[in-house]
Specification:
Blueprint lengths: L1 H30 L9 E2 L2 H9 L8 E2 L11 E2 L8 E2 L14 H34 L1
Antiparallel strand pairs: 1-4, 2-3
Helix pairs in contact: 1-2, 1-3
């Protein structure tokens, strides 16, 4: 039963993780708006989510063998599914910075709205499961 609940919420978990990662990328763009030669970065959320959901095609994470009790356990993980791309500037600046604050603010607000929506959906699904379990 726990596996079914995990599968049900797995999509939203991956979406929330990608939204958080995108928020960090957009915040870095905004923070570096005055940095000379900084190139604005972003990724396509829908293709990153499709890649994250298609994990059955990905190789599993590699566990390193411990041959001595003094070794530190570690795990090699696959790279992040979101490939960062450079944003094409609408009007490049003289110092080489490609951050357009209007575009960044709109993308940041849009991502925040989707993040809050995903959290609301997860919360309502958990509340409905709790209500079903209490009856």
């Amino acid at each position: 039963m726990i596996d079914r609940i995990g599968e049900d919420l797995g999509f939203y978990q991956k979406a929330i993780n990608l939204r958080q990662h995108r928020q960090e990328v957009l915040a870095a763009n905004i923070a570096n708006a005055d940095t000379p030669n900084y190139k604005s970065r972003d990724f396509d959320f829908s293709s990153a989510l499709k890649d994250a959901m298609g994990e059955a095609m990905r190789l599993p994470d590699t566990q390193l063998a411990l041959t001595s009790a003094r070794h530190i356990p570690a795990k090699a993980v696959t790279p992040d599914p979101a490939t960062l791309l450079y944003r094409q500037p609408l009007q490049p600046s003289m110092d080489g910075n490609t951050v357009d604050m209007d575009v960044e603010r709109v993308q940041f607000a849009d991502n925040t709205m989707h993040y809050q929506t995903d959290l609301t959906i997860i919360s309502s699904r958990i509340k409905s499961m709790m209500a079903a379990l209490q009856q």
